[in-house]
Write a structure and sequence with these properties.
By secondary structure, the protein is mainly α. The protein has one domain. It has three helices and two strands. The longest helix has 11 residues. The radius of gyration is 11 Å and the shape is globular.
Amino acid sequence: MPVIYVLGTTGVGKSKIAIELAKKFCGEIVNADSMQIYKGQGIMTAQPSPSDVMEVKHHLYSLLD
């Protein structure tokens, strides 16, 4: 199974591109951002919205206190 990496600086639209790619290839999104694993960081780190999570399965967000 191929893996597609989406890399870039803050605020360039990585999440939007990742969702589009995941839908196109019937994939899932695995978080690799060091801050998005923490709960309560949604606004500061642009975590996926509930509608994003309903569209595409997301992993490794908001795991730690």
